[in-house]
Amino acid sequence: MEQRMKEDAPPDIRIDALCVRIGARDVLCGIDLSLRKGELVVVVGPSGSGKTTLLRAINRLNESFPDCTTRGSVRMKLGDRIVDIYGGDLSLPEIRRRVGMVFQTPAILPFSIEKNIALPLRVALGLKPRDIERRMEHALLDVGLWDEVKDRLKSPARMLSGGQQQRLCLARTIALEPDVLLLDEPTASLDFRAAARIEQWMIDHRDRYTILAVSHSLGQTRRMADRVCVLKDGRIVEMLEREHIVDAEGYYGRMEKLF
Amino acid sequence: MKPTVDRFWKTVSWLSGLIVSASVSFLIGFLLWKGVHAVSPRLFFGDTAWQDALFGRRPVFDGIWPAVVGTLSLVVFASLIAVPIGVAAGIYLSEYATARQRRWIGSLVDLLSATPSIVMGLFGFTLILFLRKTIFPNAQTGLMLAAGCIALIVLPYLIATTQAALQGIPEESRLLGASLGLTKWQHIRHTLIPLSAKGILGGVVLAIGRAAEDTAVILLTGVMARAGMPRNLWDKFEALPFHVYYLAAEHRDAAELAQGFGTALVLLMVTTFLFGFSYWIEKQAARRWNSA
Lengths: 259, 292
Prior knowledge:
Chain B: It is found in: Cell membrane. The structure holds two protein chains of two kinds. Chain A has helices at residues 2-8, 51-58, 92-98, 113-123, 129-142, 146-149, 162-175, 192-204, 218-224, 242-246, 248-258; strands spanning 13-22, 25-35, 41-44, 68-78, 81-84, 99-102, 180-184, 210-214, 227-232, 235-240. By secondary structure, chain A is of the alpha/beta class. Chain A has a single domain, classed as Rossmann fold (3-Layer(aba) Sandwich), CATH 3.40.50. Chain A has a six-stranded mixed beta sheet with strand order 6-7-8-3-9-10, with helices on both faces. In chain A, strands 2-1-4-5 form a four-stranded antiparallel beta sheet, with helices on one face. Chain A is globular. Chain A starts with a helix and ends with a helix. Residues 1-5 of chain A have low confidence and may be disordered. Chain B is mainly alpha-helical. Chain B folds into two domains: 1-35; 42-291, MetI-like (MetI-like fold, Orthogonal Bundle). Helices cover 77% and strands 0% of the residues of chain B. Chain B has helices spanning 2-35, 41-45, 50-54, 65-96, 99-113, 117-133, 143-167, 171-179, 184-213, 216-221, 240-250, 254-290. The chains are: A alpha/beta, B mainly alpha.
C-alpha cells in the first residue's frame, strides 16, 4: 500500500522523450525516466552509451557544448510546483544550484580547501562570510572530512588524497543545498577504501536528495542501487527493480547479456 | 632496430638541449667578458652624480641612465596597453567566439604576428604624418606612439598564449563553474583565469622580452640618440637596444664599443628584472586567489 502511494505521487524528476544530439550524432534517444527521493537510481552501460550525457541533460550542462541540441522535457518538483527545466521557469545558474553535480575525476580548484567550498557560495549565492562558514562546516561534517581538514583549511586542496579531494567536491556541491544530485562515476578514480566511503554516503543520503548516479562497477551498482537503468546506444534497454538486483546470479547473467 | 631508433632520438633531443644551453652560456659569457668591466656608475650616469640623476635634478649626458628609464617606460606602457587587450582577446577567442569567428579572427592575429617590426614602425610614423595633416598639427613621434606600436607587435603572443592556456584546461574543470551555478563571466573570472594564470604569465614574459629588445619599431616612432630623459609621455626618448645599435654602428674607439657591450649586459639585466617582476606579480595573485 505504501509502495502504491509512492508510485502515485508525482516524481521529483520526470524525464519524457528526451533526445540529445551532439554534432551529427544522436547520443540519447527517447529517454523516459522518473526519479524519486529515497530511491537511488544507478545508470550503467558500455562506454559511449550516453550515461554522462543523460546526467548532463538534467542540469542542462550539455549546453556548454555549442553543437548540442536537446528535445523532450525534464520536469522537476519544487515544493508543490512542477517546473520545466527546459521551459525557462528557472535561470541556468538557478537550475545548476538546485541540481548539483560531482564529476568522475576530482575537479578541485587550485585554491585552499576552504576557498574551494566558499567560492561558489560567495560568488554564485552572494552569501555573507558567517553563513559561508556555517555551510562549509556542515558540508564537510556531512561528507566526513571535517576532522581531517579542520586544522588546515587554508592549505591547498591539491595536497589532499584523491578520496579526500572527491569528498571535498561532494561537500562543495551539497553546500549549495541542492535538491537533486547527479554523480558521474564519482568513485571511478579512487581506491577501494575511498570508493567505499562515498558509496556508503550515497546510500545514507538517498532520502535527503534525489540521486541519479552513474557507475562503472556492476558490484557497486548491485550494493547500492534501488533501481538500475541500463543504457545502450543512447536508449534505455532495461530497468531492473530491487527484486532483480538482489538475485545475484540473475543480475550478473542479465548484465552479461545486455552489455 | 627499435633500440637503435630509440637511442638515436634520445641522442638528438639530448644534443638539442645541450646546444641551447651552450649557446645561451656562450652568449652571456661573451657579453660578460666584453662588457662587465664597462659596467660602472660611470656607464649609467656619466659625469653626473647618481643622486642628482636618480631624482632628475641634473641631466645625464654621457650615461645610459636615460636609456634604462626609456626602455623601462616603453615596456611598462606597452604592457599596460597590450596585456589587458591581449588577455581579453584570448578569453574572447577561447570562450565566446563561434568556430567561424575563431577562424577569421585567428587568421587576422596570425597576420599581425607575421608583420615585420619595421612595417609596424612605418605604420606609426605614417599615423603621425596623417595626424599632423588633420587634427593634431603638433603631433610628433614619441614615447606613447612607440609604446602603442610595440603593443601591437606583442599582442599576438598574449592572445595566442591566453587562448592556448584556456583551451588546455580539462573538460570537467571547464564545466565545473557552470555545474556550480556560476554565470559564464563568474566562471571565467573565478575559475578559468586562475587555472590558466601560469600560461598567461608565459605570454606576458614573451611580450615583455619582445618589447624590451625591439629596435626597428622605435627607430621610426620616437627613439633618438642623446634625447635625455623624456619630459612627458609624448616626448622623444632613449632606449637600451637602440643605444647598443647606435654604439655598434658608430663607435669611435674601443672604449665606446666596450660601452656598447656593457649596455647590452644592462639590457639583459633589465629584462631579467622584468621577468622576475612579472613572476612576482603572478605569485601575489596566486596567493590572493588561494586565500579566500
